[in-house]
Amino acid sequence: MNMKPKILFVQEVFGRLSEVFLYRMLTNMQDMDVQVLTGEYINKESFPFDNTKIIIWEKIEITFPKKIFAVLHRIFKPNGSHMAETNDIIRQINRSEVDLICFQFASLPVLFGKEIEKIEKKCCVIHHGSDINLAVVHKRYRKRLQILWAKMDQIIFISHFLMKTALTLGCPKEKAIVIYLGVPILPNNIRLKHLKQKKDSIRFICIARIVPVKNHVTLINAFAKFVKATDKEVELVLIGTGELENKIQEKIQSLHMDKYIKLFGGLNNDKVLTEIAKSDCVILISNRYTLNGKINQEEGLGLSLLEGGSMGLPMIGSRSGGIPEIVHDNINGYLIDPLDIEEIKNAMMKIVKNPMKNKSMGEHAKEMVETEFNLDMQSKKFQSLFRMIIHNHPK
Question: In terms of Cα–Cα distance, which of 321, 310, 246 is closest to 286?
């Protein structure tokens, strides 16, 4: 009888609402025995997971950084408590009876530095975005990342954009591979049910953390101009939480857009999907976020666009990061310059004025998701790669 390969996924916190894609990945790996080593398990109702498979790491007295830039503080500060913490996690990894360790994001293992050599098992890391982009401007973080890459048996990226960036930073080409994340393919009746109940208004939806790189301020400015330029009844729904929530709320009020722009905050995945089903267009205009004169933050892929596409919604996305790997201009949506308010407004106007074009673009978006970003299909690709690593045949 063949035993399922045992995979230990390691991440700082398990169950963040903004990381539903990680939960989907783990729960969809039917051919693997999946365990999670984490510092904290939150949102258990939204992310139910077999408690026997969740391991909370031991003797951790210091909270790991919740923001990627806090990583730098941990790198530069004296090593005393940090090294004790690191060694506890590494010991727990080595005690686990698994075939492969998979780090979700590099922000945790990069803190290990040379101590990562103490891990006695096969390892891989999946890079999702900011854990790569930070290295563009911070040399110390980059050096730690290179130490991590040297230890890994495989380095996985969720977009070609991220892999290309990493290769310029010293990532070993022979270890690098791209596997897109997938989204679930939902029954057509979910969208059709809401279309029957829908009002005549045109609804745009943006699902994103409310942080600088997601570019909400520009989106709101463009939408305000769009409202004044159209005679249609329109609405913009913003779903997400983050450090700029208060600023965004103030911006909406200052432009007198309360009637047109709704800030829903953080919603669980089922509610997010319901709100997408009620919408006409999904939008994500992430910007190139600059530090020290260098662009170091761009969208890794843009999964919220794919979720909209899976329901047949046309997409509006920015020419930034991995988004052009999803949005094909004038085919399944519109690509825009994330700094060009007029171009963003015009893309919205096209959505309002061309219902037949919208239907065609939505159909193309749905077809693309089903053939290239299907969750079941992409999960099988990850599982196949994990088996190859375990059996000493990484790509």
Answer: 321
Mean pLDDT score, 105-111: 90
Q: Which two tokens stand for residue 316?
A: 């509006």
Does the pTM surpass 0.70? The reply is yes
Distances (CA, A) of 35 to 103, 117, 304, 334, 351: 12, 22, 26, 40, 44
Q: Which two tokens stand for residue 351?
A: 């959505």
pLDDT at 232 over 60: yes
Q: How many Å apart are CA 129 and CA 229, to the nearest integer?
A: 36
The DSSP string of 207-247 is E--SSGGG-HHHHHHHHHHHHHH--S-EEEEEE---TTHHH
Structural domains in the chain, CATH included, are 6-182+374-390 (3.40.50.2000), 188-372 (3.40.50.2000)
376 with 28: CB under 8 angstroms?
A: yes
Mean pLDDT of 164-174: 96
pLDDT of residue 333: 98
Cα–Cα distance between 98 and 34 in angstroms, integer? 9
